[in-house]
């Protein structure tokens, strides 16, 4: 007879907190609570897997969603296993882009992984994490091992993966070797004996396959999976990605840029950002949700921008970024501390904008002017052929909301 | 400018003779003629690949179709490469049966291969052939090698293989590892540098893939393929196979059985059998076709049965088998030399048939009687409860066309 297992309230609460905003499969919060409780009782930490794609080492706030979860597990004493996909990166990935990703050399993989960890350490303690590279167990695999692995999955099953199904339906080629990417990723879970794997919702197929392959290889309690939502960029429309740098908040953005970009998100994203990108408690989150109904969303957003900016740049820079923002955007004023530009002869406004690096091209300068984004001493410039005089009459040039320069003639 | 290559009549004729009844792809007879001519001019023998499935070592006449072709290449001085599918047999094959074949051990593979060669040597000179086992190059392959191999084929392409397409459409599972069977077989052509591969028409996809993979690995003149028709069993309906032993002519069948079975084929198969199972020349074949229109097909079939039986059992046994056949079937007589059975007490006919081993069960005995297939002294037995008397009155018992016993009471 099976022993009746009673889940303690404490672990259900833990599981709920850890999984805020995430999807737990297949057993939901209770499965995670059981794992947490059993781990506590046996004093055997849960092994939490995160696969890292070393082909894209530039981290942005979107990546911190999963890192926040790892941090929570780490704070509870569990083991974070950071898996560098060395073998897979050296193969190329059939990603959602429906294109085969170029293969990387071993050196590139190692270099990228290093950069990745440096950025990650802003959120969690990477020194306590187990770092492994799947090239260590995947590269030595031989025919028989690989066929054994592949025999556990059918073509029909593989074709349920969204991007494969889509490409197959569209008549776009899927190379046979691409089927091995999810298989290898799944086998990683066997190799590192993962108890839970974290991944974006776009990884649903792969991480669930990890559970299945673990079971096929005899693991009694195969991994559960935690799927994290993909977070939208500052436009609130598409997922945050380096592909749209203007809507992407990079971990290496300056405090001022980070704060300013966070202030530009639509109000509808405020709660999602708070929930997934900050460490505030569930109670605080509820409080914010309540306040949002009665207060000016701008004030709540300022709290969000300040909280996140402080986390990555410290209190002082966050305060400074906030003051700047208040001054520039809210009071339409000019920041306290702006760079200066010395010149002697009169200059065309378009050439000047390019020279200052405020725009990347003359075309962009003209478009900015046409859009009313360029001001001299708070007066909009409307004519791209305007010549900035060399008589000291023009004092402050503004491009967009946050770029200023003091013009010094002489 | 490309040099103009003039194919000599001699090599076209050679190519036509070798490929009698077969399909040559992709370039037809001319492509083979060019290979033959270039080989003769360069004194570099053509490398002819035949993959052997060591899971089914019992050879029958169906297998000799391809062996006859190999023999012709051998007679012209070319190199026969007999490939034992050790690696593939140890994996299992997604055959046309839509079922995964059980994997064999290394020892079973070697034992089967040995048996295979012994039987093959009845047709060609196996001592002159190159014998290789693909386990030698496939087993050491690692992840990167296998992914490189797999990257040359798309899922859509693989799904054009008849049995895969059928199974997929029927919702029957295809394991991912099964995709590797044709890939491995194709890679064998790279490893042995084949110029032409022979196979049954059911191997069309696999052998053509060999050509493609060779090209992907840089072979300037990748292999052409010769597809041999599958030969029907003696019922003329389904392909000859051990699955239907009553319609299958095994190389280990006695001269009498071989001759008798050959005489039982439908007239429509006579030319196909002559063309693919004997060494008669094209001129002789034309002559036989002409005679078949005016003579009794039975006489032509006797020539066929004699020719094939002589090949595997020698002149003397073939003559004896032929005489027996004439005596038993044509003259409804009893063969000269039949075994005897001594008994003392009266016996039920059904029990007797079972005891003699003429039938496998009482049920079969009853069916044989009901079908009029049992005779005592040339009189049909109709009653399964008949008791064969112990008074010496019953002398010869006949079951079916070719089983006889002399009953000796005492």
The protein's oligomeric status is: homodimer
Measure the end-to-end span of chain A.
Answer: 92 Å
Percentage of residues in helical conformation of chain A: 40-55%
Uncertain segments of chain A:
93-98
**SS summary, helix count of chain A:** 17
* Strands of chain A, count: 13
Largest sheet composition of chain A: 6 strands, mixed
Shape label of chain A: globular
Structural class of chain A: alpha/beta
* Radius of gyration of chain A, CA atoms, in whole angstroms: 26 Å
Proportion of residues in β-strands of chain A: 5-15%
List key phrases describing it.
410 residues, 13 strands, globular, six-stranded mixed sheet, 46% helix, alpha/beta, homodimer, five-stranded mixed sheet, 17 helices
Account of the 3D structure:
Two copies of one chain form a homodimer. The first copy, chain A, is α/β, with parallel strands linked by helices and 410 residues long. The first copy, chain A, has helices at residues 9-18, 28-42, 61-75, 86-89, 106-120, 135-138, 143-150, 155-158, 162-169, 180-192, 204-216, 255-263, 270-277, 282-294, 297-330, 349-355, 362-370; strands at 23-25, 47-52, 79-84, 130-133, 196-200, 224-228, 340-343, 347-348, 374-376, 379-380, 387-388, 396-399, 403-409. In chain A, strands 1-6-5-2-3-4 form a six-stranded mixed beta sheet, with helices on both faces. Chain A has a five-stranded mixed beta sheet with strand order 7-13-12-9-10, with no helix packed on it. In chain A, a hairpin with a 3-residue loop joins strand 12 (396-399) and strand 13 (403-409). In chain A, helix 12 packs across helix 15 (297-330) and helix 13 (270-277) crosses helix 15 (297-330). The longest helix of chain A is centred in the last third of the chain and has 34 residues, at 297-330. Chain A is globular, with a radius of gyration of 26 Å. Chains A and B meet through helix 7, helix 8 and helix 10 of A and helix 7, helix 8 and helix 10 of B.
